[in-house]
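Sequence in, structure out. Go.
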Amino acid sequence: MSVDLVVENCTVVTPAGRVPDAGVAVEDGEIVAVGRSDRLPAADRTIDAAGNVLVPGIVDAHIHNREPGLEYKEDWESATRAAAAGGVTTVVGMPNTDPVIDRPEHLQLKFDRGEASAHVDFQSFVVVTSENIDRIPALDEAGALGYKIFLGSTVGDVPPPSDGEVLEAMKRIRETGKRLGFHEENGEIIDYYEAQVKAAGRNDPIDHSHSRPVIAEREAIERMITFAEETGAKIHMYHVSSGSGAEAVARGKDRGVNVTAETCPHYLWFTEEVMREKGNVARIQPPIRDEAERTKLWDAFDAGAIDSIATDHAPHTDDEKKVDDPFGNTWDAAAGFVGLETEVPTMLTFVDEGRLTLEEWVYHHATRPAQVWGMYPQKGSLQVGTDADFTIVDPDREWTLEDRHDLHSKSTVTPFEGESFVGKATTTVVRGEVVYEDGDVVGESGYGTRVDVDDA
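Output:
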C-alpha cells in the first residue's frame, strides 16, 4: 500500500508529549498514521524533515485580512500567503471590513472571496451591533465561526451596543452554542482619556498608549464576565494585553464562567518602551503595556489564564502608519501591524529561552484555539482521520528579520523588524498539500477552503 505523502525523520510534538525519529502519513488529505519513521507506509512523496520538529498546524484565530472592501491594505490571498510562509494552516478573519460582516449575505461574500483565493484554510467571525441582534440565528445558520462585539473605539469605528443589548445578544448567542468574543476596552474610559490627552497637546506615540489605560481593559473583562455569568453565554477575550486583564479572566474561570482568552506575541515580547524606540510603527489597540504588566501577563499565562495565542494581524499601508515620520503626531497614525510571519518565531524563541516548552507552545498555538472555536479535532490535532494540517519548524535556526519587505503581506509594517529569533517554520502542509517549503510559498491561490464548523 502506498499513501500520498509521508513526512519522516522528525520529532512529532503534541500537547501530550513528543516522539523522536517519527513522522506522519497522509492519504486523501487526512492523517492515516502517526508513528516511528520506520513503521510508516511507502508514499508517492516522502519529505525528510532532517531532524526538525513537526507539530499540528498552527491556528491563528484573529487576523484582519481586510477583504471585502479594504483590499488595498490586504486581502485573502496575501494574508493567507503570509500565513503559509509563517507556518499557519488555519486563520479566522475579523468582521470590521467594508461592508462589515453583520448579515448572512456579507458573510457569504467573505467566504466566497476566501474560496477564490486563500492559500490556507479559513473561517470568519461576524459582528454584533445594535442593528443586527435579531440576525444572530441567521448568522449562525450561515456558518459563522463565532461572534464579536467591539466595546471600544477601534479601526473601522464599529459602534458598540449598549449593555442591555449585549445581555440580549448573549442570550441569543447562547442558544446557538457558539462563542462571543470581545474587543474588551471600556469605550467611555478610553474616549475620556484620549480627549484629555489631546486637550493637553500631547501627541507622542507613548501618549496613545497612556490614553488607553489598563483599567479600561480590566473593567470591560470583568463586566462581560458578569454578564456571561448571568446569561450562561460562552465568551472570549481577544488580544489580552495586560496582566491585570488576564488576572480578571482567571477570576472568571474560578467562578465557573465559560470564559476563554488569547494574548498576542507582541504583548509577551515588547514593553511600552517600544513606543519610544520605534514610535507609531508599534501603535496598536489595546496598546503594549509596561514591564510590570508584561511580567504579570506572563505569570497569568503560566497559571492558565490565557488559553491561546493569536496575532491580531492588522495590515496598514506605510502612509497610514506614518512610517516616514514614526515619531510624528500619533493621532494621525493607524493602529495595528502585521504578525502572521513572526508569531511562530516569537513563540519558538520563548521556547528556546525556557519560558515555555514545545508541548505548551503547541497547546496554546494549535490545539487550544481549535478547541475554543469548535474546530477541534479536525484542526489543531494530529489524530488519525483528521485534516492533515501540520507545521514543520527548525527550533534552532537563528535569524533576524532584517527587512520587513521580505514578508508576504501587502502591507508589511511591523515592530518586529530588526528583532532576532531562534526558530522558524520550514514547511507548511494544509490537508496534505505542501503550501510552503524551502522559503517559498508553493501552494496555489484558492486551495484554502472554509472550515465547516458543523463537521469540525
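Check: The radius of gyration is 21 Å. The CA atoms of residues 264 and 311 lie 5 Å apart.
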